[in-house]
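Minutes, methods subgroup
Present: GH (chair), OT, SY

1. OT presented the first of two proteins processed in the latest run. Sequence and structure tokens recorded below as shown on screen.
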Amino acid sequence: MLDPNNTLIIQIDTNRKKYFIEYGKLADFQQKGEQAWFLLGYVSPSGEKFSGLNSQLLVKALLAIKEQFVLDNPQEVCIISTTTMGQNASPYNADWIASGVAKQLSAIGIDTIITFYTQRKGFLVNENLLNHNASFINCRYDSVTKQILLNGIPITQSLLMSIALKEVLVWQAVSEYSFYL
């Protein structure tokens, strides 16, 4: 059971640009230890939008909530879709929502892990510990090397591994993801 003293559930109405506390009380909320933000909504089939927002607009909404409710920087942001879970999303797409959010947050000094839940299979995909028939990929932007890390592996290295394992075809890597090669 969730403790209302250390849990806030905030609903975002992106159309009306309003925020509502659905669970917990801001006056009683005690920020202690690590924070994780869970985003529950619709991920477009291509994985480039979350509830109609691209990564720039999503980060803008998250920062507005962070400022309005005076929240600490999260150690993890989890993106969970209520529907298709970005089944056609590829972590190698330049506009993939998780890498976009990771880059944008890193640019403003919030270095966090973005966990993207997916139905995809592959060497990068971790088995979901909650066993909800989904798996996940951790994404982080390393501001020192200026490189996206997927489960701690530099994206170029993971793309080459995906090619070697025939999860990504060579022609696809050359035509769609050549900026990583």
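2. SY then presented the second protein from the same run.
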Amino acid sequence: MFNELLDQRNIGLWNKLISQFDIQIIETINYKLEFKSDSNSALIYVDTRKSKELFTHELLHLELRYFGLDTVTFFDFTKFNQYEEQIAYNLLNNIEHILFFDEFIKLKFNPKLFVEGISYKKVLDKQINQYKMLEKIDLKLYYTSLYFTLKAEEYYGEKRFDFLMKLKKLNKKYFEQCEKAYSSILDLDLEIHPNVQFEKIMKILFTE
């Protein structure tokens, strides 16, 4: 299986990560990283296609942990209902995508193969229109997650300006906080206490 997932582009990244983490690869129906900080181990799920691009995508999620940034520690998931939990994971996932997309390109992978799918216009319109009708979830969490879905997709080449302007009209204050946090994410230095920097970003989003 390793020969199908590794080549000269990602072998260096793989060797770096296995020097620090106990990594297991499990074949399933999709690609996903499951990181266990207490045992410094990781499960990487892959499907039968053995996509080097999507496997490397998961390695780059793990590389953030190598640098000391584990974004899931910044939410208390016990306070979320099942809908909010999914939304929070989506938010953090898209922030991580912004953080490592450039590295994916530096490794000479095709940017169009960075993720499995992109949100479609009808889906985005529906999500934006649902914002004022939602009752079972934290609206700011939903808004912020939607913003970073759009910004992540914009970051890797999709046209999302019109959707972002629709989002801005719904809540200008939330939008400005998201913009401020996004700028800080672009400036985040993974070599210098990334957890401290990320904590400040989360405060911009949820405490200001």
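Chair's summary of item 2: Residues 76-206 form one domain.
Next meeting: continue with the remaining queue.
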